[in-house]
Amino acid sequence: MLRKSLVALSVTALLSACAGGAGESTQANNTEAANAPYSVNITAAKAASDNHLVCNQPESNNAACNLRMYQVMVESFIDADSNADYGTGYGTSHHKGDIAGVTASLDYIKSLGMNTVWLTPIFESIPIDGQTEWIDRLDATGYFTSNYFKYNPKFGTLEQAKELVKKAHEKGMYVIFDGVFGHHKGNVVKSPQGRLPTIGAPVGNVGFEAKYPEDLAFYKEVATYWVNELQIDGWRLDQAYQVPVSQWTEIRKAVEEASATQTYKLAGKEVNPLGYMVAEIWRTGANDIAAQGYGPEDDPALPSAFDFPVRYSVVQTFAVDENSGGKRPATHLDEALFSHVSYPSHAMPNLMLGNHDLVRFGDLLQRGFIADPSEPEYWTRHKAAFSFMAAYSGPITLYYGEEIGDQVPDFEAMYSNCDGSSGLCDDHVARSSATIEGLATTVGGEIAVLNEQQSDLKNYVSSLMAMRAANPALYNGSRTHIYSDNNVYVDRKDAGNNHVLYLVNTKDKEAIITLKGDALGSVGNLTNLLDKQTVKLVTGQYQITLAPLSAAFYNIDSPSKKGPVFTKKVASLTGTGNLAKCDAPTIKGDKGPLGKTMWIRGTYKGGDGFNATPASHKFTYKGNNIYQVVVEEKSASAFAFKFAAADWSSEFAVKKSKAVIIGQEQPIMTASGYGTESPIKIPEPGTYVYSFKVEKGLHKGTMMVSKCK
């Protein structure tokens, strides 16, 4: 049975879990020899569908599109002040991290090419009488605050926090605080203006929900206080779905107004605080992220949210997700980006590989039995994943330690013993001690020296970030999807006179890519942005060889005036046969061979992350073992779904959880449990019929989604 707590990781992942296949205007010829290179001939481009967003609009010149954020979990980061130690916490770290350790690491963070530091919550959590060790650990995370207006003395002093922000700004770096505006510890201290939040419904064993609109004034005061006090540049917003989207509109406006009244010098230049706000809306799909964070097109709420749907696609493609789902084709990367059609135009999705609640990329590689740190593939897969982040339009976030391939030794071997207190569970295993080159991790400890592989990966990340900063086409460029199949992925990015070709080989086999100049929209040389080598146009085409699990970025030196030549043939969205009929009569009172009512359950708007069974998505029985429902799709979108009963006693998805191909009949099978959903992308609004037919054994059959004529 699907349960929200269990399917959380797979739901967003499967938004991008789409079937592979060559483009209709291309010819892909795999040689039969297992050790021979993969080769593909690309003759025409496809098209992108996410260019309505702010960071795909080069003329927006929005500074937030160029954010390269470095996330620090304070208690597990660097210990540079022996007077500021927590001494407990979740994860495997020393639990002694402090604000002085972050300040000491600023030069290292800047050397990576990152321009923003995001700190997990640093406000005081006051112990309650008789609280357990478990609550002590929650206090160390900072996510159950007692005093929103006091810096936690176990992390340091207010003066140290001011020093951090001042030095970061001097070095040209922004500082983002972590705001928990939807719940609190309960023993909350009054604000400077005498306000207190409501004690709402309990959250776990320690906290309470905030209540809106009653608490709006309190949290507006919190959000603006630190902008005024320290000139911070914005907020990461924990569990943003806990705050009504209309209230986010008010808090955002307050932050922007406060930011407009403050100034500081960023690398010597007088500026206002950035006022950036990024939401954490996890365990759901793009439609809910839009509804709960971004708000409507005509009444914007938050400007940014973490791109969990694309994150899961990336780890599924280059490693596995937390549910061990992997081996996805390169097409999944493009299909994931299609989910952006669900967002309003003001949206700025922020892409990351991991964070403090997710399993590190290195540990996911080991979970999937793909590679461990002793093997070269462990490091090349990191590089390939980072390359995709570098080519992403919009802000990006790097979790500390990822740049050196950090992982918890033997985590997978011990994972089955997770008991909530071992420090080796999925939701806190990534909270390991930081390793910062040139610094001691703890006071009096040894100075960290990176090994050869760590140094090489760190240098690669630094080169990617420097390249990204120098090429607005990467962070603020429109995207043209040239090609993707099972193995390779190719995009063109454009911003003004900056034109970049990005290619990545997602498989452990050399790829030879022949790319027609017309398909790319190029009439001259391609110059590699990292090694400056050139690829010449020979008889109208380029030939580029990519090593296994490698990427390349090329400047398009001479773009053609007409741009890429696109595929002209478009497959019909309307199928044929009984499963495509939109007006088949219902056999009233007959529940068919399944003997129960079935629904489309999924992450579509109104689907409540598989939990809802709305009448608009309820099947009726048409006879001949066929179930159908006609759905009015009001806009282009992407989501994951199953055909399932209310109690999950019957559930079906496309065989092997492949993507739905609209207008085509596909096999279905019983798909029990999380991680077995099917993804679909609705390319345009209209009326669609969803149909499935079960065979005698009631364990398999066929299905179709077809646009009604």
Short description:
The chain is an alpha+beta fold.
What descriptors fit this protein?
nine-stranded antiparallel β-sheet, Immunoglobulin-like, 16 helices, TIM Barrel, disordered N terminus, eight-stranded parallel beta barrel
User: What's the CATH superfamily of the largest domain, by name?
Assistant: Glycosidases
Arithmetic mean of pLDDT: 92
Helix content: 10-25%
Rounded to the nearest angstrom, the distance between the terminal CA atoms is 36 Å
Radius of gyration: 26 Å
Query: Which CATH-level-2 architecture of the largest domain?
Result: Alpha-Beta Barrel
How would you characterize the overall build of this protein?
With 709 residues, the chain is an alpha+beta fold. It has two domains: 68-472, TIM Barrel (Alpha-Beta Barrel); 571-707, Immunoglobulin-like (Sandwich). The chain is 22% helix and 24% strand. It is built from 16 helices and 34 strands. Strands 26, 27, 28, 29, 30, 31, 32, 33 and 34 form a nine-stranded antiparallel beta sheet that branches. It has an eight-stranded parallel barrel with strand order 3-4-7-11-14-15-16-17, surrounded by four helices. A hairpin with a 3-residue loop joins strand 18 (478-484) and strand 19 (488-495). Helix 1 (4-13) packs across helix 9. The longest helix has 19 residues, at 452-470. The two termini are 36 Å apart. The model is unreliable at 1-32 (pLDDT under 50).
